[in-house]
Structure formats: C-alpha cells, structure tokens
Amino acid sequence: MSIMHATIVGAGVAGLTTALSLAAKGISSDIIEQAPQLGEVGAGLQLSPNATRVLAALGVLAEIERQWLEPRSIRLASGIDLRSLADLPAGDFARNRWRAPYGVLHRSTLQQALLRAALNEPLCKLHLGHRIDGVGADALAHVTGRRPDLVVGADGAWSVARDAVAGAPNVSFSGNIAWRFTVASADAPAFLSRSGVTAHLGPRAHLVSYPLNEIDGFNLVAIAAGARSDESWALQADAARRAMLLEQFSGWHRDIRTVLAGAENPTFWPLYQASEGRWQNGRDTVLIGDAAHAMMPFSAQGAAMAIEDAFSLAHHVSRTALPSALSSFETERKARAARVKARGDFNRFAYHARGPVRIARDLVLSLRSPEKLAADLDWLYGHKIDG
C-alpha cells in the first residue's frame, strides 16, 4: 500500500465516496467541510448503473434503494407537441443488461446514506465547519491534527484545492442556465410521467422531469442555452429571471409553459464547466469530481463521474507508489471524462436542435429501436472499475 492516510477537502458526494472507497482498502481519512452541517443541495438526482455498481460495492446502495424509484423508461419527447420521440427501457431491463439498477432520488437521500456510512466507519473522521485557505500539509494538519500522505480535492467547481495543482483546470460560464423546482403529485399535469424519466426537447432548451418518492412529487430541471448570467452560484429566481425562463421556452406546448409559469420557488443555476488542465501535482495532491472536470448535465453523469473517480482513485493508490498512482489515475479518468463530455456535447446539440436539424433528429430517433438505444449506452452504463 502506497499511503496510510488521506485528507479529503469537501464532504459532498465526491468526498464521502472517496473516504468510503479508501476505507475499503484499509486507508484512513479526514474529511474537511466548510459547512457547519451537511444539508440538501438541489433536489433530484439520477444514478445510472455505472454509479450504482460502485455504491453497491461500498455497501451503500441497499439503503438508497429503500427510498428511491427505479424508472421504467427514459423517454425523449417533443416540447412542442408532447409526442414521444424515443424510449429507452430501464427498471428490470437496466438490471439485466448492465447488472446494476438505474434510480432517481432526492440528492439528500444519497448524501445522507454516504454520511451515515462514513460516520459508522472507524477509518473515516469528519470535520465540519472548517474553512481552509489552502491545502498545504501544515494548514490541513492544523485542522485534523495529522499530516496526510495524500490530499484529495473534492470541493467542487469552485475548488480551493486547485491552487495546489499547477496548470489545474479553470471554470467558466457555459452559456447555459438551469431552473430547478419541484411539483407536488397532487398538482402535477398529465404530461409528467409517473413512472419514468422524460426529457422534453425544443429549440435551444430542454426540460427533464421525473418522480421523487421522497417528496411525493416531481423534480423538474429546465435548461436553456444562450442565456446570460452575472451570478456564479444558485439563487432564488426573481421576477426578471422567471420572465427569462418563459422567454426561453416561448413556442413550447402550453401545458409545459403553464408548469413553468407556476413553478414555486425555482432556483436559478448558472452552469459552469471546467477547461483542460492537470488533475494532480505529481506528488501528493489530486482533484476529483467537479473540481477536476465540471461538465454540463446533458448526460446526467455529474454525480456518477464523481463516484467513479472516488472508487478508481482508491484502487490506484492502494496498489502502487503515490506519484505513479496519481499519474495512472489521471490518465485513466481523463479519458473516461472526455468521452462522457463528448457524449454530453452531442446531446446538447441534439436536444436543442432547431429547424431542419430538429426534423432530421426526430426522424433518426423514431427509427432507433430500444435495443439500439441501449447498445449506444453500453460503454457508459456498463463501465466497471477494478476494486
């Protein structure tokens, strides 16, 4: 084993999964989080089989399964007239094809399951309410009382840990805005599927919706391209931002516009993405998750990539000397993240298509069988990481 102890900066999905993955290899960790307590951020979350396979290996999946919903299908539909364009079966189909389930859940369900597992793991120690200005060994040891062999930057798109990695990625506004909100089941219109995930597609925008067991309602995320923002983080949508939302979805089906207009307490999320750059310093510090590769949510893989990163990192550092382990981790995960990003970029082009391109897209989708749609995702959902 190349290391005995790590300090992880950030106690979100990436950080907690890293702590549990390292513990599974006999490596202890301190997890430092600036928030005084871990609350929910956002609302809904999709977990595809490549992520749930890792959570099962860490012993966390069973608790999550008691609360989540497994969609029967993942459907693409027109935002203009609501007609179905393509339908990928999920549920038992996902379990049989990819040997792991596909689930939708409240983000806090995953966060709390990971937190409880970390609190019950003797090799993990959580330090809440500690804001750090740098990730040098001395600064971290001042908080934890122990100098780490490895520092893991799992602190998101606005990572402090990036400062310790020369040539690390930068983040920039993508030109896309997400409006997130929920709708109670009792108030939900008929076009919202009670048993699946649906992405309604339209010119320069799309709307994702799915049911959440935990709130007896639906999670909705409306994403529009070409919007501007002077903000860097999520905030409640005021009247001006609500007007922007309706403008971005002008021309859409009236039932969808009615839901958007009546959204209660929507949050306005400027979407940021990371540039190319180094993920590790060649010695003792590595970036994972959004700190390394923040990407657009067009493949619903943000959380999944962080979970994969964590499990892969633990595998590498438990086998070889640290500099070599960090280098091989970076090479492996960069290739994977680049392919996922490329798929997301393609989805963004297809989802937001206009004019003749939209017509061609709809025709191509109508000709794709469920089997062919699934085969296109085998590389993504069937991905396995050595444990």
TrEMBL record:
Domain FAD-binding residues, every copy: 6-340
Statement: the UniProt record of this protein carries the keyword Acyltransferase: no
Cofactor: FAD
Keyword Lipid biosynthesis: no
Native source organism of the sequence: Rhizobium wuzhouense
Listed Pfam families: FAD_binding_3
Matches recorded under InterPro entries: FAD-bd, FAD-dep_Monooxygenase_BioMet, FAD/NAD-bd_sf
Protein name per its UniProtKB record: Salicylate hydroxylase
Record key words, sorted: FAD, Flavoprotein, Monooxygenase, Oxidoreductase
